[in-house]
Amino acid sequence: MYNPLDPPSTDFNRAHPPATDIEPIVKAALAEDVGDGDRTAALVDESAHATASVISRESAVLCGAAWFTAVYAELDPAVDLTWLAKDGDYVRPDQELVRLTGPARSILTGERTALNFMQLLSGTATQTRRFVERVKGTKAQIVDTRKTLPGLRTAQKYAVRCGGGVNHRFGLYDAVMVKENHVAAAGGLGAAIHQARMTYAKVPVIAEAESIGDVEEALKCPAPPDILLLDDFETHLLARAVNMVGQHSRHAHNKVLVEASGGIDQGNVRDVADTGVDRISIGGLTKHVNAVDLSMRFGGI
Description:
Blueprint: H1 10-14, H2 19-34, E1 49-56, E2 60-61, H3 65-75, E3 80-83, E4 90-91, E5 96-103, H4 104-134, E6 141-143, H5 153-162, E7 176-178, H6 180-186, H7 189-199, E8 205-209, H8 212-219, E9 227-231, H9 235-252, E10 257-261, H10 269-273, E11 279-281, H11 284-287, E12 294-300
Parallel strand pairs: 6-11, 7-8, 8-9, 9-10, 10-11
Antiparallel strand pairs: 1-5, 1-12, 2-4, 3-5
Helix pairs in contact: 2-3, 2-4, 3-4, 4-5, 6-7, 8-9
């Protein structure tokens, strides 16, 4: 099980999801696009072979090679792919990313589905890299959320890692996250944190604070949360909360991470990072995606 408190490692950051995650999504995408046959590609001679290249039309962080490859492996293993860039690479306009050789019909049929995966995931990786660059020199990590496209969570979270970000919890199963509705139901923040600790001894606990009073209440718990999520705090209050948590951690020898969230964009993310928070979670990394402009060009048939 993934633990959101584990420090990121290079291997974990770049390892793409297993084929068992990728193949079903690719099959569903091809079924959606191809249906009972590609009418237009059928106009091309069945014996014709072609070469083609995919280029980026803009500067971006590449992501999605495994999904692109899986499209052609599913359609026609006779299509040969030669990758000239890898996931996590910063690519320039007009840079060739991958070269395809094989049956012309198959290359044409897979074009849109393969590009859709790669342009979407490259968009997520590129957006993440922009935020990561903005907070360089601080200790803050850029973290994603569960605000992902349905069915593409593992793919988009992989893209965040390719962009230099860190994954939050993957779902409802690998961490406890106490928010305002849970607090109301439990009768208070401290009570909700205590209940979470008593119920799940080995699962990370994340608690949302909406005020300095909530921070104080959370830190008074016999077993405080692993991560204190400060939602929509002004920067001066973030700095105050970071100082409070720091003092607690030094005296109690119980490290609590501070995470900022809510209303954070590229214009203010540096100010948030400069308060000393450990993590900054941004739903827009996976929710507001501007797909990277990629193009496939045929070299001849």
